[in-house]
Structure formats: C-alpha cells, structure tokens
Amino acid sequence: MHQSPIISTMADNKSKTAKLTNKTAVRHNEQAKDKAHSRLSSESNGTSEGAAPNELSALEEAFRKFAVHGDTRASGKELHGKNWSKLCKDCCVIDGKNVTLTDVDIVFSKVKKKTCRAVTFDQFKEALGELAKKRFKDKPGEEAVEEIYKLIEGKSPIISGVTKAVASPTVSRLTDTSKFTGSHKERFDESGKGKGKAGREELVDMSGYVPGYKHAGTYAQKVKGSKPI
C-alpha cells in the first residue's frame, strides 16, 4: 500500500519542525547556562551587573589617599597609625571635646591585629564606627556612622609645614653686586653679571700698551688726521 504524496510531505515537515524545535531548545538552554555562569562569577568577584568592578566609593578613595601619603612604596590598601591620626585631624573627626587624639589612638589599637602596624579598609570602617558613637552622641548608630563618613568622603591629606621664601634685608645686601668692593667688585660687570674666568684671574694684557694707558687704539686715527708737510 503506497502513501499519498501529501501525507509523506506532511510527515517530512513534522520531522523537520521537531528537529528545529529541539535545536532551539538546546540553544536556549546553553545561553541560560552561560548567563547563570557569568552571574555567579560576577557575584563571587563582588561585582554586580552594570557596575564597574574597580569603582571605588568616596570613602575608600579618601582612605587610599591618606594610606599612600608620605610613602611612595605604599599600596593604598593599608593605613598606618600616623596617617590614621592625620586623617582624623584633617577631616575634623577629632573635635577636642567628644573625640581626642587619645581616643583615636585607642580605637586604632583596638581594631588592628596585634602583629600588624596598619589597618585594612574594613578595619578602618570598624574604627570609624567606634568613633561615631563618641563624635555624634545625640544620633542613633547608623545615622552617626553616616555623619562621620561624610566628614571623610572626598577628602585628601592637607599639606602643611611648607617653608615660604621670605625676603631678608641682610641677604639682599650681601647679594647686591653694586655694593661689592675690592677684588669682589672686579668679578661682576655693571649689570651684575659675572665675568667668569676674567673676573677671577689676572690676565696678561697682550695689546702692547702700558697698563692704564687711556688712549689705546687712537694712533691710526691721529695718523689719518695729520696733514703732510
């Protein structure tokens, strides 16, 4: 018994459709697995979709600026006690009433490891949480922490103690070449520019004139100006 051409064509179409459906399903499953894998990888690295992996918060940026201050070999990942104290001073965490320099030192020793001389960023936040309780006593815990974060966010170390040049009458008098006398005066010209070797050594006059003669170079002019006898 032979099948009609129409029935055979319909069977072939159904077979092709089933194969395409299976391929599409396999493709969708592979794409879903890839997305899940990338999401898990981003979560394990501490990043989320749409956020830059190396983006720093304003607080961490300030932490790193103070961490490398005065130390060209610092990585910015750890903050030493000296720079911790400077941060608290420059950012007005120390107010002299609720928080003092002693409080800052005590908290630093409390949060750092015994064998370490510096604190990490997480330990730094822990220390700020301790100081927030004293600095903002009238505010609840989380709000106090936010306030102390605001004092630090976006800040940089304050450069102080830079010596400025001050004009001194004594120095000006000693460097004024117009007031030099004796052999020192001969070392400079009228504009104050040094003569170099000519001002340091007594050079021999090879012109043929007697030293001090004022009419050097006028002989040729006299000969030309004279009339024949």
UniProtKB/TrEMBL annotation:
Listed name of the protein: Tubulin polymerization-promoting protein-like
Residue ranges, annotated region (Disordered): 1-52, 178-200
PANTHER family reported for this sequence: P25 ALPHA-RELATED, TUBULIN POLYMERIZATION-PROMOTING PROTEIN
Composition bias type Basic and acidic residues, residue spans: 27-37, 183-200
GO BP field: microtubule bundle formation; microtubule polymerization; positive regulation of protein polymerization
UniProt lineage: Eukaryota, Metazoa, Chordata, Craniata, Vertebrata
InterPro entries tied to this protein: EF-hand-dom_pair (IPR011992), TPP/p25 (IPR008907)
GO terms for cellular component: cytoplasm; microtubule
GO function term, MF aspect, one: tubulin binding
Subcellular location: Cytoplasm
Species of origin: Acipenser oxyrinchus oxyrinchus
Composition bias, Polar residues: 1-24, 39-48
Entry's family note: Belongs to the TPPP family.
Gene3D superfamilies linked to this entry: EF-hand (1.10.238.10)
Alphabetized SUPFAM superfamilies for the sequence: EF-hand (SSF47473)
Predominant location category: cytoplasm
Keywords recorded for this protein, A-Z: Cytoplasm
